[in-house]
Design a protein that fits this description.
Layout: H1 2-33, H2 53-60, H3 64-95, H4 99-113, H5 120-130, H6 136-162, H7 165-173, H8 178-189, H9 191-207, H10 210-215, H11 224-228, H12 239-272
Length: about 270
């Protein structure tokens, strides 16, 4: 009993230490965001004159408010489109046992291996020919194409391992057709993995800098990373404003994560087991 108590205390102590290590960057981020611009002391040292002026300046003197709206629109439309397409594609892949279905599933998995940079120039010329450069729709199309393989993989594996066929068979016995069974029986059971996809994909799109820099360059529309980048100069960077802007940009996605956090571990574990 004593050995078990010591082991439990050691595990708790280790967990607290690891948590402390992970909180150090958060502390530095907050500490630098409330520091006056002229304060050059190391970020680990508490600010002697904390101020909230950096948050006010970042919100009122930059494109951050409009950038948050643009990022929210792009992220929302992209995530909805990805989840709808991935769900409708994953269901027949998971339930069909034909060789064509398995081959198609592995073709989608190839998309996980190919880097986006391989298609960067062809996509740029394609968007230019379609007149979509400088438009958020170019980002939506690209995000949908690049994030579909991962979403299909996760949802298909979750369907195969965590959603029993008995529910669908019972619905068909009660008179439901294939479409009704899919939308009213299968989709509600996919909420854990859909929540997981929403968080993982949404955070990636929200924080992406490279793609908007290429396809929105020269337009009046900017996303959050592009808006924050205006404080980065060739020789001098305004770090207090950068960190204040980062904290402001974190709040919307943090709220969404807290709402869907109970789905993340369940859906991710269910999508990877088996």
């Amino acid at each position: 009993m004593k050995a078990r108590t010591v082991a439990r205390a050691g595990s708790n102590l280790t967990a607290y230490l690891v948590t402390l290590i992970f909180l150090i960057p958060v502390y530095i981020l907050v500490n630098l965001s409330i520091r006056p611009a002229g304060d050059l002391t190391p970020g680990i040292i508490p600010s002697s004159h904390p101020t909230l002026d950096n948050f006010i300046t970042a919100w009122t003197t930059s494109s951050l408010p409009s950038a948050i709206i643009t990022s929210a629109v792009v992220t929302s439309i992209s995530c909805i489109l990805i989840l709808v397409l991935a769900t409708t594609a994953a269901y027949p892949l998971a339930r069909s046992t034909s060789r064509l279905s398995n081959g198609t599933f592995y073709v989608f998995l190839i998309g996980l291996l190919l880097p986006f940079q391989l298609a960067m120039l062809p996509l740029y010329f394609q968007m230019r020919d379609l007149g979509l450069l400088g438009s958020i729709w170019s980002l939506v199309i690209i995000y949908a194409g690049t994030q579909l393989p991962f979403s299909i993989f996760l949802i298909t594996t979750f369907l195969r391992t965590s959603v029993p066929l008995e529910y669908e068979e019972a619905a068909r016995i009660d008179g439901c057709g294939n479409v009704a069974t899919f939308w009213h029986v299968v989709v509600p059971l996919l909420r854990p993995v859909l929540g997981t996809c929403l968080i993982l994909i949404g955070v990636g799109i929200w924080n992406d800098f490279f793609t908007p820099l290429i396809y929105l360059s020269g337009s009046h529309q900017v996303t959050i990373p592009m808006s924050i980048y205006q404080y980065v100069g060739q020789y001098v960077s305004n770090w207090p404003l950068i960190f204040a802007s980062l904290i402001i940009s974190m709040l919307p996605i943090l709220v969404i994560y807290l709402v869907f956090q109970r789905y993340v571990i369940h859906g991710f574990a269910g999508g990877l087991k088996g």
